[in-house]
Amino acid sequence: MASKITAPKGTKDILPEEIYLWEKVENTAKKVCERYQYKQIRTPEFENVSLFQRGIGDTTDVVQKEMYTFSRNQKEIFALKPEGTAGVVRAFNEHSMLSRPLPIKLFYLTSCYRCENPQKGRQRQFHQFGIEVLGSKSPITDAEVIGLGFDFIREIGIRNITLKINSVGCSNCRNAYYTKLRTFLEPHVEELCDVCKSRLEKNPMRVLDCKNEKCQQITKDAPLMVEHLCEDCKSHYGSVKAYLTIAGIPFQEDPTIVRGLDYYTNTAFEFISSDLGAQSALGGGGRYNQLVEMVGGSDVPGIGFAMGLERLLLILKEQGITEEKIDTVDIYIAPLGEPAHAKAFKDVQALRQMGFLAEMDCMQRSLKGQMKYANKLNARYVAILGEEELEKEKYLLRDMQTKAQQEIDFDSLVNLIKSNGGLE
Ligand code: HAM
Fold first, then answer.
1. In whole angstroms, what is the distance from residue 209 CA to residue 260 CA?
2. 195: enclosing H helix or E strand
3. How far is the CA of 320 from the centre of ligand 1 (A)?
4. CB of 268 closer than 6 A to ligand 1?
5. CATH 3.20.20.140 correct for 331-419
6. What pLDDT, in 10s, does the model give residues 68-96?
7. Cα–Cα dist 157/241, whole Å
8. Residue 116 near ligand 1, beta carbon < 6 Å
9. In a 3-state reduction of DSSP, which class is residue 203?
């Protein structure tokens, strides 16, 4: 026997019995987005690698270590999308959406790819539900985006999610803050991990986000961005908090939230779950007022979030929320013998084209075997087609609920299924 080929590390099959829960999550996302007037967008699975290098930032883990890149001719290098935002922003620019009535409100359900070490809630191919708003810098939009996330979480039925928010400022206040932070970190440079050392120059705020114990110890008393916001950023952050409070959306301020991608400005937030273990972020997002320009567009503000669907499903399972569907078929045709199979196939196709859920034998099972299989399928009726019935151009129809049987021609059979009437 040839050796068994397995799925690549960090990927997972989603089997038919798991699909109902996936569909419930996806349909809820679509329903909530429709209420808020967000339209679906689908962008390619791969993009020019420079989109992510420029957009997400070349000092981030995602770009430095986790992208799946490939090239066919060494001239163009592509990358599988590690997240949804950059592609959406590229599409916004490419299709001149700025000339449409603003704001542009979009959502997506997409696969993403990051070459990370797999663990609970962390895969190499995973799925995101995300939303992006382009063209509004109003704090109402920040609160709306967070509010949509909250409504989605509530509607799907999961509990114990904490919303943590912070402001990471703008390029103006950040420069002054970076100088202060670098001065604070300078005496400890040699003790920082190698990754943090390399971040010090371009993005020292990420040092605050490091999971290394020593780095965490060093940054315990570090100056915080939120305490160094310029007047505009301070006022924006204050308004976002006020709008969240008005809408009754509970939040916790967490000045250590800096997010793992470089494009964020102002509001940054995360939805945290205690049911996820180490990978506790169900979702996260924030403002990105410079991203559109960074990838070649105009000066257009943006904000959004993305949630990991695998993590969402883990929480649903942990909290005992399931979605089961009992499959049924309207009719199962049980032919016996070769000529009966031909007639059965003609009729089963006709029934399917009429819109019925119809099935027939293709395993040459005995009548007993077919009845057993029809039972498994939860068939409402079984239409038996033996030699005798074939000759009479009739079916022997069995009502699987009442167990009554009756000879019936095809047209009457159709009418009976249509009315879902029972045989006495
Ligand atoms: P992110 O925080 O990198 O943000 O990812 C968002 C969510 O995707 C995470 O909270 C997590 O649930 C899920 N996720 C990330 N990596 C993995 C993984 N390896 N395995 C399973 N799930 C994962 C973004 O991607 C931003 N684009 C969000 C955003 C939209 N910001 C503004 N707009």
1. 8
2. helix 194-202
3. 24
4. no
5. no
6. 999 999 889 999 999 999 999 999 999 99
7. 25
8. yes
9. coil
Look up the CATH number of domain 16-170+230-318.
3.30.930.10
Helices (H), 354-386: 367-376
Q: How far apart are CA 361 and CA 382, in angstroms?
A: 11
Residues facing 332 on adjacent strands: 359, 382
| Nearest CA owner, ligand 1 atom 17 | 122
pTM of the model: 0.94
Cβ of 305 less than 6 Å from ligand 1 = yes
Q: Where do the domains of the chain lie? A: 16-170+230-318, 331-419
Closest ligand 1 atom number to CA of residue 259 = 2
Return the closest-CA partner of residue 148 out of 241, 237, 23, 34: 34
* CB distance 118 to ligand 1 below 6 Å: no
C-alpha count within 13 angstroms, C-beta hemisphere, residue 101: 0
The tens digit of pLDDT for each residue in 360-382 reads 999 999 999 999 999 999 999 99
